[in-house]
Amino acid sequence: MRTQQADFCEYLQFEHLAAVPGLTHAVFTRRGGFSAAPYAGLNLSGVTGDDLATVRRNRETVIAALGLPLVGTLTVHGAEVAAVERDADADVETTNEAEWLEPLRARLRQTRADAMIADQAGFALCWAYGDCAPVLLFDPRHHAFAMIHAGWRGTARAIVPRTIAAMRDRYGTRPGELLAGIGPAIGACCYETSAEVRATFAAEPLAGECAHFEERPRADGQGMALYLDVAASNEAQLLAAGVAAEHIETSGYCTGCRTDLFYSHRREPKPSGRFAVAIGLRT
Ligand SMILES: [Zn+2]
Fold this sequence. Notes:
- This protein is an alpha+beta fold.
- It has helices at residues 15-18, 52-66, 97-109, 152-156, 159-171, 195-202, 205-210, 230-240; strands at residues 2-6, 9-13, 23-32, 70-71, 81-83, 115-118, 124-129, 133-139, 144-150, 179-182, 192-193, 213-217, 224-228, 248-250, 275-281.
- The protein has one domain (6-281): CNF1/YfiH-like putative cysteine hydrolases (4-Layer Sandwich).
- The chain contains 8 helices and 15 strands.
- The strands form 3 sheets. It has a 6-stranded mixed β-sheet.
- The protein is globular, with a radius of gyration of 18 Å.
- Zinc ion (ZN) binds at residues 187, 189-190, 254, 256-257.
């Protein structure tokens, strides 16, 4: 990934997505921003206790860096896919953003989903992350894009193939043409999990086959433990869904190992912040 600097923030971009004209995307690090410890930096989440006025200021920083307004559903660690689009009667030619943006935001506030798909320009899909894998997709033929919030629960329910199927149904997306980016997520180095979690994966055959679990001794010498690699599991799901290996770029960052750059729900003292990830098309 390449690193970009903007006013009061820093963000990473996948090389192949950054090369697409009109497409904008960013994985924001926690550097910059206005939050104080323990949220220090560019915290985008208002639900873990940070000062809301400060979170709004951080959000404005993200909007300014992207040049697009942000939209997003409620995330619930499920496997639902939401299509994000303006109301049919909203005038797409309108220069008054509020006319279509506020109704869209109001609708999404009532929508529970952990994957968003879209093919309209003028807004960025955006969520805040802190260990779950952000997976970004772009279909160059149909100018459709997606953002996935893949924690262990979504990954166990094969949310990546579900999202690709939804793009195929709605936009005619061909998986072999998709460009995919997997952002910073908690790695097997840091993520101890349980036999129950492995059993949940096994209940969904594709997710079970693609899961990357690792059994190894605990660092503290207290016996063996099971660890999960969320990013690698999602990469395997992308491949299983027909995405070409050369079209997949992974960040290589573990959020737990790199709390200097990102937030980690599991590895930082609680409460902690959440970093922003966004993707959208410019008008
Ligand atoms: Zn780690």
